[in-house]
Amino acid sequence: MAVMETALPASPRPAADASELVAPWLAEHARFLAERPAGEPAALQALRRLGLERFAALGFPTLRQEDWRFTNVAPVARGTFVRPAGDPDALDAAVLAPYLFPAAARLVFIDGRYSAKLSHVGALPAGTVVTNLAQALATVPEQVIPRLGRLARLEDPAKNQPFLALATAFLAEGACVLLPRNAVVEAPIHLLFWSSGGAAGEATFSFPRTLLVAGENSRATVVETYAGSGTYLTCPVTELVAGPSSVIDHYKLQRESREAFHLAAFQIDGEHRAAPSSHSISIGGALVRNDVTAVLNGEGIDCILNGLYVAEGRQVMDTHMRVEHAQPHCSSHELYKGVLDGKARAVFNGLIYVHPGAQKTDAKQSNRNLLLSGDAIANSNPQLEIFADDVKCTHGSTVGQLDDDAIFYLRSRGIGAEAARSLLTYAFASDIVERIKLEPVRRDLEEFLFARLPQGEVVRQAV
User: 0.90 cut: is pTM over it?
Assistant: First the structure.
């Protein structure tokens, strides 16, 4: 984004060494505010202001910071990004066809802007709201305002998530799913975010927001798909409030273009006996960062967080996860796997934090990485911080290559060397694939793996 002459809003100044990088975004934000419609809720304006203040104070992260020491965001910090132009309804629907599947409701966002033409909402249980965020703020603000931004905790000075703060500063559009008490939505709810570079080859930016609120004893499946073409920056923020005894299956499919920057935050707030689960699949993007936070705020919660990232070339996949057990008798299970080829790099930093008094906690966290190339690198750091004495907590990580003995065994059965390696790679990834309950998502991931792996047809026939 080029520096503009617009006067900067009153906000904390960034440090001198970062001001030249932050200033263009502050200027763009001033123009963004000038174009907002009159009459927006004061709470929304205050939330944006807080996001801007935090971003101005934090600036862009550097390799000197512990949480970012393996992930260089200089291409973003020093890049030039422009606001996307054009009509979101003008996109040819055929472009989206590879990402679609039958759904109870589908909301489509083009470059961060809602497309009513490409979206549809079918019959839903009474009281269920599936709409774009702007419409939800206009029609049911009492259900949205108290929850929007609550999980971000940007007021915490220890919170070091500048991209979450930046996305909050530009909060304008996104998806809103509100499930009333006892609502059951059998078919999935699909949220599709498509991004593209500018018509003149410029890199664009968008900050889509998603608010998911599940009422007591409700049940639904929500799929977020991120895809696109060209060079662009997308900073999505998803907040999931899982009410008492609710069951929410969440899937995030990150299939961005290979030139894209995807810097995301996903936050879960679980209440009494809720069962939120999330499966995160990352296969696109040049630079990808997922900050995942789950706070188990009620007794008896069962939280599952699984993920698979597949990278090649010079792709970077970074996952930072924090699971807080704030109440007793809760369980959490996290399994993240990575397959890395070429000069790809992966980072996994996971923390299970057990609060004082959170007795009978059962927490397991595992990160496993398969390196298909001698140049691929995986940095893994699962951690435990426990302040209760009656808990079961385990964590572990592995980084390794394919087993030579297993390859030899398959070759002795008449399978070629390349096919043998692909079979073992698929077997490694299939542990996550098989945990995906939604058949269209599972099938598409299988097809991607068959296409990516050498001798994929041999693998398909074998499995």
Answer: yes
pLDDT-above-70 percentage for the chain? 96
DSSP code of residue 39: T
Q: How far apart are CA 337 and CA 263, in angstroms?
A: 19
For strands 189-196 and 105-110, give the pairing. Answer: parallel
Q: How far apart are CA 186 and CA 246, in angstroms?
A: 14
Which amino acid type is present at position 264? A
Distance CA(442)–CA(435), nearest Å, equals 9
Q: Which amino acid is at 38?
A: A
Burial class (CB in 10 A: 0-12, 13-18, 19+), 41: middle
Distance CA 127, CA 235 (A): 30
Query: How far is residue 146's CA from residue 352's CA, in Å, rounded to a whole number?
Result: 27
C-beta contacts of 115-120 below 8 A and 24+ residues apart: 115/88, 115/89, 115/91, 116/89, 117/89, 118/88, 118/89, 118/91, 118/93
Q: Which phi and psi (to 5°) does residue 424 adopt? A: -70, -35
- Residue-wise pLDDT for 207-245, tens only, equals 999 999 999 999 999 999 999 999 999 999 999 999 999
pLDDT digits (tens, 9 = 90+) for 349-372: 999 999 999 999 999 999 999 999
Output the CA torsion sign for 33, 173, 226, 380. positive
CA distance 29 to 351: 33
The count of residues in the chain is 463
> Which run of H or of E encompasses 121?
strand 120-121
Backbone torsion region of residue 162, taken as left when φ is above 0, otherwise alpha when ψ lies between -120 and 50, otherwise beta = alpha
